[in-house]
């Protein structure tokens, strides 16, 4: 679904809703923070796919890839990153993204760092 933006163009409604709800937690910031913590544990191919998505600006997809990797490998995330991911996902409240990702994030083990 697209909505009109003030410049006369169209913008994705979800992006508009997310920025209105959570302006301090955007996909890019969260994606790069997660990459700094997660990618050292990834295979070369997984790391390349994540950084390719980040480089192309597909931050949401990169986050989903990292969450899938972390979930598959039962990897612990720092308490800070886990909390940020949960708050970031609040911006997607009521969407299919929240429904599918909330259980993944809530099951992630956390460690103090």
From TrEMBL:
It comes from Mycolicibacterium vanbaalenii. It comes from the Bacteria. This is Uncharacterized protein.
């Amino acid at each position: 679904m697209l909505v009109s933006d003030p410049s006369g163009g169209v913008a994705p409604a979800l992006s508009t809703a997310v920025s209105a709800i959570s302006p301090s937690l955007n996909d890019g910031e969260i994606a790069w923070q997660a990459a700094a913590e997660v990618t050292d544990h990834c295979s070369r191919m997984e790391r390349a796919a994540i950084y390719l998505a980040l480089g192309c600006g597909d931050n949401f997809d990169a986050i989903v890839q990292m969450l899938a990797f972390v979930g598959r490998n039962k990897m612990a995330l720092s308490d800070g990153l886990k909390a940020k991911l949960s708050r970031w996902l609040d911006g997607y409240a009521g969407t299919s993204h929240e429904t599918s990702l909330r259980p993944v994030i809530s099951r992630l083990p956390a460690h103090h760092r």
